[in-house]
Amino acid sequence: MAESEEKKFLHDIAGTLATAIFVLEMALESMRARADVPQDGLAQVAQTFDLLGKMRKSVEERRRALREGGNREAS
After folding, report:
1. What is the spatial distance between Cα 52 and Cα 57, in angstroms, rounded to a whole number?
2. pLDDT tens digits, one per residue of 5-50
3. Who is most buried in 35, 53, 59, 66, counting CB within 10 A?
């Protein structure tokens, strides 16, 4: 995959991950507000949220590395 294609892919996936994290935050908040939600359900949503956060961080680190590499080449 060419570097510009990788940058576009990472940009697209980062947006998707940010949206998924936002939706999970809303779901987790809603579930916590309800007393009848089983604790294992909350734990599963929290675990998924944590995993998406780690994926997002990894994608952002790769995007930053690509940007820094591009900035060095332009200098």
Report:
1. 9
2. 877 887 778 788 888 878 888 887 777 777 676 778 778 877 887 8
3. 59
Give the rounded distance of the alpha carbon of 8 from its chain centre.
Answer: 16
**Total number of domains in the chain:** 1
- Residue 10: how many CB atoms within 10 A of its CB? 20
Tokens (6 digits) for 24? 């999970």
Please tell me whether the overall predicted TM-score, pTM, comes out greater than 0.70 for this model: no
**Distance (Å, whole) CA 6 – CA 3:** 5
Q: What is the extent of the structural domain holding 52?
A: 3-74
- Tally of CA atoms within 13 A in the half-sphere of 8 that contains its CB: 5
